[in-house]
């Protein structure tokens, strides 16, 4: 009977063939990639939310659009809300100065503003979703890679047992149990990736919903010079602006 101290993860790695070691390296790389994305994008989402709340407070308490423009020029664009505001202001000024000089500028000023703001929101949406496909791929494929490693390990173990002619339970259970380690590793890689993906998707959806609502308020203000009724509420509660769907991402 094989000593108990020789059975375990270290023994499994030592006895693995090149394919088994390759699968283990792939899972390790996937784990590093998923945790890196989760941490980096999580920190970015926290910073984006903090800067966004600060900008919304500043915007609705500013004395004029010139003050908002000066703030953006001084501190730069740090969130989707300031990004949208800067492009919307530039689009309005450009249309007032040059009119519809190009096909992309055709139509009224409001139509040009809507197209510009849709484009900016789409750019921000693409930026927010960058990297999420990697997390989704890791979450969906890691368990199958681990399962494949388990099947391959069991296959090699059974081949080795048949070659020795020893088919007792103690000779079979040890190698088969070791092979199941790969399934466990695959699940350990996939579970954080799936949880991180779902959390980031929800955070992005909340950000984009708030951005859509702010875009409607900003469009009304730039087009008429007046704050719409529901914008008065968002001045006091920027965390939960009312949702209006006049402007939607393309």
UniProtKB/TrEMBL annotation:
GO cellular component: plasma membrane
Domain MotA/TolQ/ExbB proton channel: 101-211
Keyword Heme found: no
Membrane-spanning segments: 18-40, 144-167, 179-200
Subcellular location: Cell inner membrane; Membrane
Disulfide bond among keywords: no
Membrane topology qualifier: Multi-pass membrane protein
Record keywords: Cell inner membrane, Cell membrane, Membrane, Protein transport, Transmembrane, Transmembrane helix, Transport
InterPro entries with a match to the protein in the record: ExbB/TolQ_transport, MotA_ExbB_proton_chnl
GO biological process, one term: protein import
Pfam family, one: MotA_ExbB
Superkingdom of origin: Bacteria
Function: Involved in the TonB-dependent energy-dependent transport of various receptor-bound substrates. Protects ExbD from proteolytic degradation and functionally stabilizes TonB.
Family: Belongs to the exbB/tolQ family.
Quaternary data: The accessory proteins ExbB and ExbD seem to form a complex with TonB.
Name of the featured protein: Biopolymer transport protein ExbB
Species for this entry: Oxalobacter vibrioformis
């Amino acid at each position: 009977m094989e000593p108990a101290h020789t059975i375990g993860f270290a023994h499994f790695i030592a006895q693995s063939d090149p394919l088994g070691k390759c699968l283990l390296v792939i899972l390790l790389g996937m784990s590093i990639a998923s945790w890196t994305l989760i941490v980096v994008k999580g920190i970015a989402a926290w910073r984006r939310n903090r800067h966004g709340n600060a900008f919304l407070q500043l915007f609705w308490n500013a004395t004029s659009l010139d003050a908002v423009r000066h703030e953006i020029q001084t501190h730069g664009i740090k969130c989707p809300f300031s990004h949208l505001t800067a492009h919307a202001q530039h689009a309005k000024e450009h249309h007032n100065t040059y009119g519809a000089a190009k096909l992309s500028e055709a139509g009224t000023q409001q139509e040009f503003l809507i197209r510009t703001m849709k484009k900016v929101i789409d750019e921000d949406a693409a930026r927010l979703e960058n990297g999420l496909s990697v997390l989704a791929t890791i979450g969906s494929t890691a368990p199958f890679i681990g399962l494949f490693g388990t099947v391959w390990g069991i296959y090699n173990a059974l081949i080795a047992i048949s070659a020795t002619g020893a088919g007792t339970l103690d000779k079979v259970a040890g190698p088969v149990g070791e092979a199941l380690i790969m399934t466990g590793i695959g699940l350990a890689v996939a579970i954080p990736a799936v949880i991180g993906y779902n959390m980031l998707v929800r955070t992005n959806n909340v950000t984009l919903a708030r951005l859509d609502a702010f875009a409607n308020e900003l469009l009304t203000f730039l087009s008429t010079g007046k704050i719409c009724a529901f914008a008065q509420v968002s001045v006091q509660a920027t965390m939960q602006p009312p949702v209006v769907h006049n402007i939607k991402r393309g």
